[in-house]
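Structure first, sequence second, as always.
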């Protein structure tokens, strides 16, 4: 495909360490593909443990000078970064769509959210404060200040390759930390483009470093085990998060883990049904179902089940799948053929267990190698594999429930606890069910609540810590207590 010049200028073919664009020490590379066509976009260095160690050393060397800048000075650099990201929004969105596949409108929205995160934490840099403590019994003067933790490792996912960089790196830099980023192997180009713009904004050499690798295991091991890294922030699967948690134990690193989800979407019989249908469309099929906060299990009260399905099916018919760079397309492909195989196997196994395909259920090879129909499964039960799975695709599994108590019990019957949703007009029910749901986030009569102002994160096996909001910067700070004898 022909790549416009403004876009081509931001596509980097090397990793970034200590202010230099570099190849892998081994000389190895790997290809980055467009999931809509499987066409190769470019190739980037396939780095390993030694490359990662070098990047960590660069971040460690840069830390004292970056830490010593005033919050206002760091804030000014972050604000310039946000401005450059906004100025290059269209090019960044195009790169995002090329390597990840999502529709261009969604990609624009993601880049805009990246600007919002960077701007937010640019301002938070100047709001980090300590405390003067009450004098102790012996009359000593005591205070607490918050100091940057040091070198931070940020491991980011492929489903939001732009905004997840901003949500991790902006607060780390605002706090005075330096960073080593390991983007997902499917989508390294967004991270490299953002890093180019950060450099243009005046971020010094060594403060941001990017390691690219075809597999995360070797790089992740070094980031977890290296004692110079004081904090690791990871977004990805619960299985990988558990491995990183175990590996970080040897150096007792501070961790932020934003892991898998199995979000319930509960619709009670007193809900605004049309609003619930649109909400379920929005959050189930957002990014073609490839988000950790997607509505994974749709629980519909028995009395409205059939009407909901009818309206839901009609609404799905208005969605348009295709290549994300086409302006009329609302939804792009899945990330790769492995994802397609997983979704097909899940549909087939669910049907074999007794479920019914209400619509869809098949690949769409005429669109490209990684497209799958919007699919609705009914007659689904809690003893089926799909009830326990994080679907990560355009599959809506619809369950019936009779009572409020049953809905809450079904919703909480999972080791995950990230996002949840409920629709009802009953004010009392809103408060009862919201409090009863064992999730870090609850959306009531709305499917979309994530922004830079929200403390994003989960409970149970969905993670540790929060990103975004005024609490997000605390993840990169340590309390430092001082006692002065008087």
């Amino acid at each position: 495909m022909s790549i416009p010049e403004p876009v081509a200028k931001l596509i980097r073919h090397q990793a970034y360490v200590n202010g230099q664009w570099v190849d892998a020490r081994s000389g190895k590379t790997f290809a980055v593909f467009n999931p809509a066509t499987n066409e190769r976009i470019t190739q980037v260095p396939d780095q390993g443990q030694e490359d990662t160690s070098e990047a960590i050393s660069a971040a460690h060397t840069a830390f004292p000078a970056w830490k010593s800048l005033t919050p206002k000075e760091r804030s000014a650099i972050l604000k310039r970064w946000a401005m450059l990201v906004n100025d290059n929004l269209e090019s960044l969105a195009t790169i995002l769509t090329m390597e990840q596949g999502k529709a261009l409108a969604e990609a624009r929205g993601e880049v805009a959210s990246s600007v919002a995160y960077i701007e937010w934490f640019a301002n938070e840099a100047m709001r980090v404060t300590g405390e003067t403590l009450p004098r102790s019994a012996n009359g000593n003067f005591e205070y607490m200040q918050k100091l940057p933790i040091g070198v931070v490792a940020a491991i980011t996912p492929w489903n939001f390759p732009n905004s997840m960089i901003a949500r991790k790196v902006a607060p780390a830099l605002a706090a005075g930390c330096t960073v080593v980023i390991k983007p997902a192997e499917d989508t390294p180009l967004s991270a490299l483009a953002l890093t180019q713009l950060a450099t243009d904004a005046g971020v010094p050499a060594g403060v941001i470093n990017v390691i690219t690798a075809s597999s995360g295991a070797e790089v992740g091991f070094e980031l977890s085990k290296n004692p110079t890294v004081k904090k690791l922030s990871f977004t990805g699967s619960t299985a990988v998060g558990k491995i990183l948690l175990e590996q970080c134990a040897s150096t007792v690193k501070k961790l932020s883990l934003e892991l898998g989800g199995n979000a319930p979407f509960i619709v009670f019989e007193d809900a605004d049904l049309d609003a619930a249908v649109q909400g379920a469309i929005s959050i189930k099929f957002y990014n073609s179902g490839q988000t950790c906060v997607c509505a994974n299990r749709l629980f519909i009260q028995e009395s409205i089940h059939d009407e909901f399905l009818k309206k839901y099916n009609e609404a799905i018919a208005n969605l348009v799948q295709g290549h994300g760079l086409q302006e009329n397309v609302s939804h792009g492909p899945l990330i790769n053929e492995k994802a397609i195989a997983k979704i097909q196997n899940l549909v087939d196994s669910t049907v074999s267990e007794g479920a019914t395909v209400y619509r869809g259920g098949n690949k769409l090879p005429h669109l490209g190698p990684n497209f799958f129909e919007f699919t609705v499964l009914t007659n689904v039960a809690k003893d089926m594999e799909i009830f326990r799975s994080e679907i990560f695709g355009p599959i809506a599994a619809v369950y019936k429930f009779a009572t409020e108590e049953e809905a809450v019990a079904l919703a909480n019957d999972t080791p995950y606890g990230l996002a949840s949703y409920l629709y009802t007009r009953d004010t009392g029910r809103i408060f009862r069910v919201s409090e009863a749901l064992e999730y870090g986030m609850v959306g009531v009569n709305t499917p979309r609540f994530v922004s830079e102002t929200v403390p994003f994160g989960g409970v149970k096996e969905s993670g540790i810590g929060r990103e975004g909001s005024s609490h997000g910067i605390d993840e990169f700070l340590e309390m430092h207590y001082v006692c002065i004898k008087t």
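Margin note: The longest helix spans residues 104-124.
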